[in-house]
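Why predict the complex rather than its parts? Because the way molecules touch one another can change local conformation, and only a joint prediction can capture that. The input here totals 259 residues.
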Amino acid sequence: MAYETILYEVESQVATLTINRPKALNALSPQVLDEVSRAIDEAAADKSVRVMILTGAGKAFVAGADIAVMSTMSPLEARRFARKGQEVLFMLERLEKPVIAAVNGFALGGGCEISMACDFIWASEKAKFGQPEVNLGVMPGFGGTQRLSRLVGKNWAKELCLTGGMISADQAKEIGLVNRVFPADEFMSEVNKMAQEMAGKGRVALRGIKNMVDEGYDLPLERALSMEAEAFATCFASNDQKEGMSAFLEKRKPKFRTN
Ligand code: CAA
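Output of the joint prediction:
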């Protein structure tokens, strides 16, 4: 499929989606959102894809929603734009394959928001995070007030959104937004290594883990545990369970099916 504002490549069961408008620091325009949603659909439909990496070209991950585009929006258009962004971020969250946010640089506004819709965030030491919308006279619209508070608590979410300040990758790790921070020159090779490793695991288990953590999070524990037992049982209907457990007992590495 032809894309103009993103790069989409699949190699060894890992799809890498790179937002590619480096001159505008990868700002999310309607066209970028549209192409990201098409690439997510492509990854969902492609059985050879097990894991996705989301990253940005150049010095930014994503410096936010496109301010030039938003500057002339009416309230009605702004609401539509926010809903569109939210929908695309939901698609990432609901993709039944793990998505790693590989944050290589600025992750501001919509950039911080899209990273939070991935399954976890790994950052280069050069990354910076923030929700600077308040500096533009507006507020986050792609889930910043909601996913941030769920990830790091209300106090940090309020501080970041109300001050519009930026934090470093290490500070983002300290507050629990980022899982790991890497030296810039090793960053993408470490992300690729982890993605390859995950891609070698069983598909049913990967899907079950992602779905259950997300779906169970907002449910009462008892209900979520009962759903977990169902998902656990589903694994036992798969070849992956047979292969994984036989391999353990036979003291060899499992070879999970690739389709
Ligand atoms: N939208 C559109 N263009 C952007 C942009 C954005 N979010 N961020 C940067 N750019 C453009 C700049 O306008 C500039 O373009 P020109 O070369 O044509 O002038 C180019 O990218 C490079 O940017 P800078 O010269 O500003 O680069 P810098 O290194 O000096 O500063 C920065 C980097 C601190 C990230 C700065 O660009 C910046 O503050 N960007 C805006 C960040 C922001 O406010 N993001 C939130 C947007 S609102 C939002 O996202 C709402 C929402 O929740 C949906």
